[in-house]
Amino acid sequence: MIFTAFSILWSSLVLPLSAAPYSLSHTAIGAFGLAGAAGALSAAKAGRLADRGWGQRTTGIALALLTASWLFIGLAERSLLGLIVGIILLDLAVQAVHVTNQAMIMAVRPEAKSRLTAAYMMFYSIGSATGAILATNAYAAFGWIGVCILGATISALALVFWGITRRFTRQVGEADVA
Questions:
Q1: Per-residue pLDDT of the chain (178 residues; tens, 9 = 90+)
Q2: What 3-state class would DSSP assign to 79?
Q3: Residue 120 maps to a domain
Q4: Which residues of 85-110 are buried (b: 16+ CB within 10 A; e: fewer)?
Q5: Taking the model in full, what pTM does it have?
Q6: Which pLDDT does position 174 carry in this prediction?
Q7: Which of 135, 169, 148, 174 is nearest to 60 (CA)?
Q8: Measured distance CA(169)–CA(154) in Å, rounded
């Protein structure tokens, strides 16, 4: 779901930014990716937290940030600064969940890293494709606000899923793995 939310933003962002009132060039729109690059800095910190057994907590906080990021992203048609804040929060959250997911998954079966990575990346690709398809349809039907509601809904569903599976893993007595 995180890659669906990620793709919802990045595959549709060009639509409101290339339209009035901004009418930005593709080069200027591409520069918004630099704001997202700030989120990559969170990956190392999230990995260290996961290695210390804080993967579940880090994931929960990151999913809450992911959901909140859509409030700022929703300002895109009125505030580029709000959009940039939202992009930074979204990318930070996605990177943190991505890294903690991998750390926790690899800890379960270290001898199967290649297979686990392949399966994980398959779902990553499915999520990305799903996000792109849903975002363009949402934009065509409901505009930018529809895209943001979609992104916030997918992000909130990821947070709910995390909460449910975290509770389940505690009930069955498993370690810090969802």
A1: 999 999 999 999 999 999 999 999 999 999 988 887 777 777 778 888 888 888 899 999 999 999 999 999 999 999 999 999 999 999 999 999 998 988 888 888 889 888 888 988 999 999 999 999 999 999 999 999 999 999 999 999 999 999 998 876 654 334 444 4
A2: coil
A3: yes
A4: bbbbbbbbbbbbbbbbbbbbbeeeee
A5: 0.89
A6: 42
A7: 169
A8: 22
In-domain check, residue 177: no
* The token pair that represents 38 in the structure block: 């700030």
Give dist(CA 1, CA 165) in Å, integer: 14
In a domain, 143, yes or no: yes
Q: How many domains does the chain have?
A: 1
Question: In one letter, which amino acid is 130?
Answer: T
Query: Would you say residue 115 lies in a domain?
Result: yes
Q: How far apart are CA 113 and CA 150, in angstroms?
A: 33
What is the C-alpha to C-alpha distance for residues 8 and 152, in angstroms, rounded to an integer? Answer: 10
Q: Distance between CA atoms of 117 and 112, rounded to whole angstroms?
A: 8
Write the CA distances from 80 to 17, 23, 89, 143, integer angstroms: 9, 13, 14, 17
Domain that holds residue 45: 2-171
Residue 84 belongs to domain with CATH number: 1.20.1250.20
Spatial separation of the C-alpha atoms in residues 129 and 7, rounded to whole Å: 7
